[in-house]
Amino acid sequence: MRKAYFRPQEGTPEPLRCTVERVVRFEEVDPLGIVWHGRYASYFEDGRVLLGEKYGLGYLDFYRQGVVAPIKQMHVDYQRPLRFGDPFTIEAILHWTDAVRLNHEFILRNAAGEVTTTGYSVQLLMDQQQNVLVLPPPFYETFRQRWLAGELP
User: Fold this and answer.
1) Which domain holds residue 99?
2) Residue 53, CB half-sphere, CA atoms under 13 Å: how many?
3) Which of 36, 58, 93, 131 could form a disulfide with 52 if both were Cys (CB 3.0 to 4.6 A apart)?
4) Phi and psi for 93 in degrees, rounded to 5?
5) Nearest to residue 28, comparing CAs of 20, 18, 38, 19?
6) 3-class SS at 128?
7) pLDDT for the residue 1
8) Domain with 92 in it: what CATH number?
9) Ranges of the chain whose pLDDT falls below 70
10) Do 129 and 113 contact (CB within 8 A), yes or no?
11) Contact criterion met (CB below 8 Å) for 104 and 47
């Protein structure tokens, strides 16, 4: 049983999800033929980008609103190696939080459906002068209200 990275809060909506399909490229493996540990940050990024595009929360969506969303924290748990040529999926999950931040969880699975890697990232929301926002910007609050009302696919 996997440990929950973000505890669900009562009365909050279900997490938002999307899945990216990938194949391990030669440039991503180390001399042992397994994915180099530092590549997992870019796999997580693939999931974050697709999820952001799906729900209008991409980096450029934030930027157009004068908001940046830097990574504050990232964690990776490795269970099984991925090797050159292996097909795999990246499931990106956005968890609800009342804080002004983005809590993403990631689950990587091999072609057999076995979990190979899990992890999470936390992004803060800041203005372009790099001040941490303590209140959600209007466009993000609108998104949150739609999520809470169950209006998102």
Assistant:
1) 16-148
2) 8
3) 58
4) -130, 125
5) 38
6) coil
7) 57
8) 3.10.129.10
9) 1
10) no
11) yes
